[in-house]
Structures are given as C-alpha cells and as structure tokens.
Task: inverse folding
C-alpha cells in the first residue's frame, strides 16, 4: 500500500478540502493540508530508503504481467524517483508555510490545488507506465495553470498563465502522439515491456520519431531552448509560493521524464549511436545555459531574473543528463536539490520584498532594502551559492557532472557551467547590492522594459512575518551546506547506477528478479579552485557593472548585436508555438538522420 | 516577430515537421494491420475473468483503473481552476464590452425551444443514468453518462430562466457532490486494500456477465465517476452562464 | 489508401499548430489547440483499428470473436471528456484576459515582452 500513498494521500485530502470548502476555516484547512504533506514526505523518504537495493514494484488492481505482457499499471519506485518526489513534497511544505499569512486564499481552493499538484508530481516520478506518466503530466499541468493565473486581477498574470497553458497543452499532445507511435510498434504501454520489445531490433524512423515526440514534449516542460519561452512569463506572474515549486521541482520533472524515457526504454536500442545523441542533447543544454544566463543578466524584474537563471541552471542539468552516464545523472540529481533549495530561497525573498514594498522591480527597490539585514544575509548567501561555492549543493552536483563530462570527452563543459553559474550569480548579486545596500547607479541603459507586478497581499506591511522569513532562511542554509552531507555523492551514484541499468529494471518489473548492478564510479574530489573562481568572477562582474562606468558603457556596446535575442522573447504566443514547431522538427530530423 | 516573418518561419518548420511525420509513418503498417498482443489479451480475458462484456470499460476501470483515477482528478482540478479563475474580483468592471452591437435586442427564448427542452429533460436524465449504470454491459460508463447528465441541466436552462436553473442546481450542492464523486473512487480503491488485496483490486463478487449486477467494483466506480463528471460539467456551465447573465442584467 | 488516416492525423496536427501560431483571436486559438488534440486521438484510434473485426463489446456476441483494440479506445475516451474541462480552463483565461486587457488579439497583448 505504501507506494500508492504519496499519490493517494494528497489527492484524497484535496478532494476533501474542496468538498468542505465553505464549512471549515482557512486555518483548519491549512493545518489539514500541512499534515497531509508531512505524511506524504514521510512516505516518500521511506520509499527512497527502501528502494535503495532494488526498485519496489507495485501492480495496481493486482494485474500482474503474463507471458511478458504487462497487463496493468505499475509503480516502479527507485531512489531517484522517490527522492525527487520527496524533494517536491519538501518544497510544497515550504510553500504552505510561506503562504500561511501570505494572501487571501479563495475558499480553500489554493490548498486543494497545491495538493493535487503535489500528488501529480509524486505520481509522475514513481510510475513505470508511459501513459500513466502522461496522465500525471496532464494533472500537473492542469493544477499548474490554475495556480499560475491565480492573481486574476493582474493582467500580466493572465497572459503569462495563458502562454504557459497553451505551450504545455500542445507539448502534451506531442507526447500523446509519440506514445501512439510507440504503441503501434511495441504493442505496450509499460516502459519495461517496451524496452524488451525494442531491445533486439535496430531503431527505425517510427521508433525514433516516437522517441523525439515524447522527449521533446517533456523538454517543453523542462524549458530547454527553443521551448523555454513560456517559463519566464509564467514565473514572473505566478504567486511566490507557486514559483518556488515551478523553479525548484516542476521543471526538473521534465528532465526526469527525459532521463526515465531514455533509460527505461531506449538505452539498449540506441546504444550504437550514443555519441550522436549525446552531441545533440549536450548542445541543447549548452545553448540553454548560454541563452538563460544572457537573458537573466538583462532583467530588472527580480522574479523574471530568477526565472531566466533557472533556465540557465537547467541547461547545466541538461548537460549532465545528456552525457547518458550514471555519473552525469547523479550530478544532475544533486544539482537539482542544490539549485532547488537556493532558488526557492531567492524566490521567497522576492516574495518578502513584494509583501513589504509592493514591487519586485530592481530599480524601484533601489536602497529600499537597507535596514533589513536578516533578509539581506539570506539573499546574499543564496546568491553566492548560485555560483557554486564549494561544498554547496550546486558545487557537489556540478563536480560530478564535470567528472562525467571528462570521462565522455566533453572537457569544455566545465567552462560553460562555470560561466552560467557566475553570470546568473552576478545578476542576483547586482540586484542585491542595489536593493539592500543602495550602492551603484540606480538604473541601467539597455535593460529589459519594466514589468508591472501587482502585490499579492493587501497592504504594504511594516514587518516580515516569521512564517515568511523562516522557510527562506532554512532553505538558504540547506543550499550552502548540502555538499557537506556525508556520502551524498555516493548515494546519488548508487541511485543513478540503478536508474541507468535498463536490463535490471526490466527484469525487476516484469520477472520480479533482482539483477546485480554494474560497478559504481567513485565520488570525485571537490573542485575548490573552480568553485571559488566562479564566485569571484560573479562578484567581479557585479562590481564592475555597478561601480565602473567604462565597463558599463563597453558592455552596452557589446550587448547591442545580441539585441535580437532580447526581442525574440516577445510574450506573443504565436512566436512561442512557431519556435516549438521549429525545435520539434529540428530535433526530429537530426535524430532520424543520426540514429539510422 | 512580425506576422509575415512568423508565418514564413512557421511554414518552413511545418514542412520539416510534416517530413518527420512522413518518415515516421514509413515504419507503420497499413491501417488495420497494426498488431498488439496487449489488446488481444485484454479482449480474451475480460469476460471470463471479470464478467464484463464491454472491454473498453474493463480497461478503463479495472485493468488500467489507476489511469482513470488520474484523469478524473484532472477533470476535478480543471473545474476547480475554472471556479478560481472566473471568480468575481473586487474592482471588476461590469458590462465593459465595447464589441457588443449597440441597440441590439436579445429576443426571448421561443416557445418551441422551451417546450422541446422541457420535454427532453426527463428522458435525458433517464438516458444518462442508463448509460452510467450499464457501462460494464454495453458501451457507456461514468464519463459518457456524466456528460449526458450535464446536458440535461443545460436543457433546463433553455426551458426556464437562469435563476430557476440556479435554484435547481445549487452551486454548493454540486461542488460537494463533485468532490464526493472524486473521493469515492479513492475509497473504493482503498477498500480493495482493506479487503486484503492491492489498491483498486476488484474484490467484490463478479456476478453474471451481461447483467447490471456484474463486474464487482467497476459498477460502483462508474457511479462515482458519473457523479463527479456530471457535477463538474454542470459547475462549469453554471460559471459560464453566470458571466452571460451578468451581461444581460446590466 | 493504406496510410490515409495517419496522414489525416498529421495534417490536423500541423494545421492546428498553424492556427495557434497565426491566430488573431484567443478564442480561435484555444479551438486550434483543440484541433491539435483531435489529431492525436485520430492517430490513436487509427492505430487501434483491425480490418474485419468487430467492436470490443461482447454483450451479444461470443467472447471469443476477434475484436479491435480496446486499449487505445479506453485511452482516448477518458481523455476526451477531461480535455473538455482543460479547454474550459483555457477559455476561462481568455475571458478574463478580455476583461482585463480589453482585447482578445494576441498581437495587442504586450505586457510580457523582454
């Protein structure tokens, strides 16, 4: 029963809260929601621990496989899936605590929606069936659309929500088309069974097209360039507790789907062409990191800045996964944790600023943060962590990714990740110095136009409630010291080894047998030089921007040729869908060409 | 991007996407010749093992029942989202619609429409209930029957006025009924666990194939889903009609 | 023609995408998303069809009669009803945009550029 609980508990509580919506007070509904979240967290942590040796397989309705045909739907719980679900639950808990005094929830719908969102994320990470994953993807999307456009009095919020909804809906239909194509070839919807059917044959264009449709549909959710346009719009307008979930874990679900689909189904089938695939997806990751960093630095709306920095860091995670090795995957997993907590903390600080000063515009907030030392400390700690200071979660993850890159022959990736980390951290630090210290010039030329943001609470408040400050501080603290957790990298490597072993997975799910896992790489030494260098570069960039008029002028000149990149992010849904079509066609044709 | 640039860019991408589709279809067998052992196996076992004569319902609510639970909650969440999104704001301008034709007189509903709608309400409700209850026997089930039931409420709106429609379908009751339908699915699934099986296992007696009293838990799940779907769609109709009525009453 | 239904599905998909990309009205745009949705259903059902077989309902025929694939029908059946509500959500967003921005034309929605 336990593998079911992370999905059933939140769903049942959501339905219960919706049924009792007018009968119980908001306090009680909040307490019930938090209790359900804590229980789900417990379940997920237990599952993560229990599946360390081998995946836990649960067949719904007791429909077990017959003759190698998986009749029913199964949950195949492994540490990476359960770990991501646990992380999602943890961030949801932070979101609930933050929103305690935050804004006037309408009835109890906010809690019910957030619980449904949590249930979908848990189900998405734990399932072993391709169509079941799609169903939870749709549930995640439906809850996310409603949560994103929550502030209906804010016009930007509606447009951001609309762009987000249309892009994700179309991505879902791409995924469904891919599932249909693969079903036609394999006659199966269970991932392990599909891998067995595809195993023996060389992939033809049908299988490759199915792969591309499914994977690129999920990469839209993961906001990889050129599918990333909706992310900044959605983040900029969603309520802050929702933003931390979007940036911290929902985007990474898209990457998990990419990794899961590849390793559970296609790993053996595409083994002969691994290099071509790696080249393609690593390039996508690199472009994402570069575009994200560049756009991040140009923003003046703090939430949009953080959204683009998420895209940049996502590019780094994508690079790690695209190396298609256990080391890269382990690195991406730890990076997800490290990035998630730090980004959540930064968004919460943005939420605090919005609560106090009714704006999140960097220029409008100039020097307003003076006299808020605690919030400033949390902000700067998280900003430094974003660059990958040694022993932070991000550094721990990126060390593994670098080791994997070196093993696969992609040495240059470490400069990209260092650069992306430094630039995004510089943007955050620059904004922080302006807001909390009031140093440097108030405005910049050539930055993004102003984005209005309506406040989320009724009046500007004179002090920050404890329930808002505490989650931000705790998350920042976790982000900084995560790399010091003993054996974190070793545990991640074990989990990744289990995740990437297609044959063992299929054998466990379909036959119930546990096969021994392949040998596991050693944890690399911490890269102190690289980490400190990235932090110093970030501080240097921020300082140069703020205190040196010459460098500012030079950078304005240098940025001008890239002005078109800025203009492409137009906020127009037609443009976004055009890029989606373009990206889908590109990925598809390149894969068909390279993999045959 | 300018319109023309976007159209050109899209045209090129669409041609490439079409090419991708064509390449994919190259590997597909001709229509009618695709094989699937999964489908054939389900067809073979649905009557002997579950006494369900409609294989699609067997797949939906028994073999792949967990998917349907997820889908039901997507519906539930979307309806909750619609309720949330269309809520009245404090500063909302009423009737600010410049694109309405000036001086347009909206004629009242004709008597023919009203009488026909009135006559159709009861048969629609009966038919909807029939479809919901007979899901395991013939094509039908909770989803289809629920949609038919919700159209009965729309017929009620057509033959009466909006305020009478509201009185016949009070919002709170509908919301509670919808949420109850959603929890019912989970409770039935958990019931399977309590009776010693796995979640959503069909643990009730299976009865005789082809009759109403067959298929074990599937019958009850159908009722729950029918309640939820009809409640959800009526709620969506209520909310949208509210917008329309606000306009008319300006 | 052996592959015509599949080609229809691909055409619907692409023309739906074109509708979304070039639309000047949000309601029209949401309907085009619905067309993209239908294309995936057409593909699913076409894949499930078997020549010369009957519908998978055995209430009046022998359970051993060869029937078409019930799996794909089940997959899309629930999806159709569910997507109605997702479309309702999108249309609700469009209605609210009209109320707040005063326009349904995406070209005139400029709050989120940059």
Result:
């Amino acid at each position: 029963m336990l593998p079911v609980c992370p999905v059933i508990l939140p769903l049942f509580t959501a339905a219960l809260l919706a049924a009792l919506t007018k009968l119980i007070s908001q306090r009680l509904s909040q307490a019930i929601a938090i209790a359900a979240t804590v229980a789900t967290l417990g379940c997920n942590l237990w599952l993560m621990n229990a599946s360390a040796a081998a995946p836990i397989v649960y067949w719904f309705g007791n429909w077990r496989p017959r003759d190698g045909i998986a009749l029913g739907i199964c949950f195949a719980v492994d540490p990476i899936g359960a770990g991501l679900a646990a992380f999602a639950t943890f961030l949801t808990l932070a979101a609930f605590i933050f929103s305690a005094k935050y804004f006037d929830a309408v009835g109890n719908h906010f809690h019910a929606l957030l619980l449904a969102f949590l249930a979908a994320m848990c189900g998405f990470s734990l399932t072993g069936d391709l169509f079941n994953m799609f169903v939870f993807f749709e549930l995640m999307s439906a809850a996310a659309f409603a949560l994103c456009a929550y502030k209906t009095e804010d016009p930007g919020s509606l447009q951001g929500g609309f762009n987000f909804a249309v892009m994700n809906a179309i991505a879902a239909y791409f995924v469904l088309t891919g599932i249909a194509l693969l079903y036609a070839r394999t006659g199966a919807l269970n991932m392990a069974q599909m891998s067995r059917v595809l195993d023996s044959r060389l992939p033809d264009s049908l299988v490759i097209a199915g792969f591309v449709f499914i994977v690129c549909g999920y990469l839209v959710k993961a906001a990889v360039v050129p599918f990333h346009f909706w992310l900044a719009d959605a983040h900029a307008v969603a309520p802050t507790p929702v933003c931390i979930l979007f940036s911290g874990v929902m985007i990474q679900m898209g990457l998990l789907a990419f990794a899961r689909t590849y390793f559970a189904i296609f790993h053996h089938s595409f083994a002969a062409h691994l290099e071509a695939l790696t080249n393609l997806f690593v390039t996508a990751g690199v472009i994402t990191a570069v575009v994200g960093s560049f756009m991040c630095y140009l923003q003046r709306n703090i939430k949009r800045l953080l959204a683009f920095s998420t895209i940049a860091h996502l590019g780094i995670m994508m690079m790690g996964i695209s190396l298609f090795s256990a080391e890269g995957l382990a690195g991406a997993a730890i990076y997800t944790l490290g990035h998630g907590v730090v980004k959540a903390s930064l968004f919460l600080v943005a939420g605090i600023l919005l609560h106090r000063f009714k704006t999140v515009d960097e220029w409008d907030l100039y020097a307003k943060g003076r006299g808020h030392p605690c919030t400033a400390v949390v902000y700067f700690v998280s900003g430094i962590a974003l660059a990958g200071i040694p022993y932070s979660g991000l550094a721990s993850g990126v060390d593994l990714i670098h080791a994997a890159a070196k093993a696969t022959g992609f040495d240059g990736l470490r400069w990209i990740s260092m650069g992306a980390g430094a630039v995004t951290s510089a943007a955050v630090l620059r904004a922080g110095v302006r807001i909390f210290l009031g140093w440097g010039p108030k405005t910049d030329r050539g930055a993004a136009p102003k984005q209005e943001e309506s406040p989320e609470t009724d009046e500007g408040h004179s002090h920050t409630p404890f329930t808002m400050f505490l989650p931000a501080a705790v998350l920042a603290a976790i982000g900084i010291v995560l790399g010091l957790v003993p054996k974190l990298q070793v545990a991640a490597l074990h989990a990744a080894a289990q995740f990437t072993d297609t044959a063992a997975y299929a054998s466990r799910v379909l036959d119930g047998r546990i096969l021994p896992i392949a040998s596991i790489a050693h944890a690399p030494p911490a890269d102190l030089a690289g980490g400190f260098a990235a932090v110093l570069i970030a501080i240097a960039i921020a300082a140069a921007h703020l205190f040196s008029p010459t460098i500012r002028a030079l950078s304005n000149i240098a940025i001008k040729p890239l002005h078109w990149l800025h203009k492409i992010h137009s906020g127009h849904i037609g443009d976004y869908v055009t890029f989606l079509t373009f990206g889908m066609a590109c990925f598809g044709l390149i894969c068909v060409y390279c993999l045959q | 991007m300018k319109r023309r640039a976007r159209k050109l860019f899209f045209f090129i991408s669409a041609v490439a996407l079409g090419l991708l589709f064509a390449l994919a279809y190259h590997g597909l067998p001709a229509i009618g010749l695709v094989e699937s052992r999964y489908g054939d196996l389900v067809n073979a076992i649905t009557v002997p093992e579950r006494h369900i004569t409609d294989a699609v319902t067997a797949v939906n609510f028994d073999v792949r029942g967990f998917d349907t639970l997820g889908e039901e909650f997507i519906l539930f969440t979307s309806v909750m989202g619609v309720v949330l999104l269309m809520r009245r704001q404090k500063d909302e301008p009423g009737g600010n619609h410049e694109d309405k034709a000036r001086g347009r007189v909206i004629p009242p509903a004709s008597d023919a429409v009203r009488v026909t709608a009135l006559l159709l309400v009861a048969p629609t409700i009966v038919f909807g209930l029939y479809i919901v209850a007979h899901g395991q026997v013939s094509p039908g089930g909770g989803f289809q029957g629920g949609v038919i039931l919700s159209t009965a409420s729309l017929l009620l709106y057509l033959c009466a006025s909006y305020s009478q429609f509201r009185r016949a379908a009070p919002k709170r009751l509908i919301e509670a009924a919808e949420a109850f339908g959603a929890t019912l699915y989970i409770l039935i699934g958990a019931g399977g666990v309590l009776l010693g099986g796995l979640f959503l296992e069909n643990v009730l007696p299976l009865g005789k194939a082809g009759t109403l009293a067959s298929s074990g838990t599937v019958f009850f799940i159908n009722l729950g889903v029918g309640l939820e779907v009809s409640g959800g769609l009526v709620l969506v109709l209520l909310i949208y009609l509210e917008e329309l009525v606000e306009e008319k009453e300006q | 023609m052996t592959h015509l239904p599949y080609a229809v599905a691909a055409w619907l998909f692409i023309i739906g995408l074109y509708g979304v990309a070039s639309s000047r009205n949000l309601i029209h745009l949401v309907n085009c998303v619905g067309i993209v949705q239908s294309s995936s259903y057409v593909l699913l059902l076409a894949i499930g069809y078997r020549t010369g077989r009957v519908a998978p309902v055995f209430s009046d025929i022998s359970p051993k009669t060869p029937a078409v694939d019930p799996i794909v029908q089940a997959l899309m059946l629930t999806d159709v009803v569910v997507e109605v509500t997702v479309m309702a959500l999108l249309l609700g967003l469009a209605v609210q945009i009209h109320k707040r921005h005063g326009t349904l034309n995406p070209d005139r929605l400029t709050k989120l550029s940059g």
Notes: The CA atoms of residues 25 and 105 of chain C lie 5 Å apart.
